[in-house]
Design goal:
Layout (H helix, E strand, L loop, with lengths): L10 E2 L7 E2 L9 H45 L4 H55 L13
Antiparallel strand pairs: 1-2
Helix pairs in contact: 1-2
């Protein structure tokens, strides 16, 4: 496997669909586990954003090249069919570039929301976790008093 991420960082999805997941949905809702999952998700989204940013530039470059090539083919007085086909490639790449840019913006927005969620989670539950973690006595599990 040629994944550009460190071993153990990605895991196969539980559905076996071949897609990758950052963190398993294991039901572990302890404070530190949630913080770690949010951190892993935020880093993965940041990394994806960098890759998408590179992809946007590459697609835009290739669209310009295709348009330039279409002009060169037209100037060479080749069959107009080839001019049209080459021009269509440039238009298609331009449209793909717009969609990749939207995906990049969505990944960035999601990464920002993930980092904000991690900070909010820490603010709401960090002190409680410190208290519960530093007690010598065992404390009831969450939901114990909801019976």
């Amino acid at each position: 496997m040629n994944d550009p991420v460190p071993p153990g960082y990605w895991i196969d999805s539980p559905t076996g669909s071949g897609s990758k997941a950052v963190s398993p949905a294991d039901g572990d809702n302890r404070y530190k586990a949630v913080q770690a999952k949010l951190d892993a998700l935020g880093r993965a989204l940041d990394d994806a954003g960098l890759g998408l940013e590179d992809l946007v530039r590459s697609v835009q470059r290739n669209a310009k090249r295709a348009d330039d090539t279409a002009g060169d083919v037209a100037n060479a007085e080749l069959d107009p069919r080839f001019v049209e086909l080459t021009s269509n490639v440039g238009v298609a790449l331009g449209g793909a570039g717009v969609q990749v840019k939207k995906l990049y913006e969505t990944a960035q927005e999601t990464a920002n929301l993930t980092h904000e969620t991690k900070r909010t989670h820490s603010k709401l539950y960090g002190a409680l976790d410190d208290i519960r973690s530093n007690r010598r006595e065992r404390t009831p599990k969450p939901g114990f008093f909801n019976r």
